[in-house]
Amino acid sequence: MEFLVPLHAADLELAKAGRYHVQSVLTFEDETDAEISARVKRVEDQVLGSDAGLELLQEEWLDVTYSLVKKLPMLSEPLRMRVVEMLAAFVSNVTEGVLARRTDDADDVALYRSAFKASVYFLITALISVSSLQLQMDKDVLKHKGKKSQSSVLNRINWGKVVEGAIQKLSRSVSPTTFSMWNMNVPEEVSHLELHLRSDDPHS
């Protein structure tokens, strides 16, 4: 089994032989913020508690992680921040595992490679989603001539700091070892590799 970066996120919902794919997409429509937060905590504990985050490839946790990223725009702002921080932790965790790996067993290599690419893919996708949301929010503020409630100003999350922290995690995951994990014959993976490498460029 291999995790291949999809052309479109929804492509992960399509069953393809030899590829990891999502079995069930959660909507979270009938769940409270507390219940969704509990889901985040469970998947975080499972993935970070496993060797190099390999549990992310298990059906249940892959489904939940994908669903959280897909439904990110619908989540409350605190939950969006929580998900981004979780995904950034996944990247750090799997990077440490990859760099510390001491086996050349083909099956083990494939697992580490898939966990690494999945973690990076989900984090980059989430960051793009957050950036789009913030851009739209800024446009809405300008459209309403800068009017914003006092509570929204006080409660607004410092997304610049959150995103910067996530990008630092991506930057630390760039190395010759991780570079070799991307499939250069798949255009989608090359595109994500470019985004990954760009996180290591302070001028990008």
Automatic annotation (TrEMBL):
Q: Which InterPro entries match?
A: Condensin_cplx_su1_N
Domain named Condensin complex subunit 1 N-terminal: residues: 79-189
Q: Which Pfam families match?
A: Cnd1_N
Record-given protein name: Condensin complex subunit
Species of origin:
Phytophthora palmivora
Q: What is the lineage of its organism?
A: Eukaryota, Sar, Stramenopiles, Oomycota, Peronosporomycetes
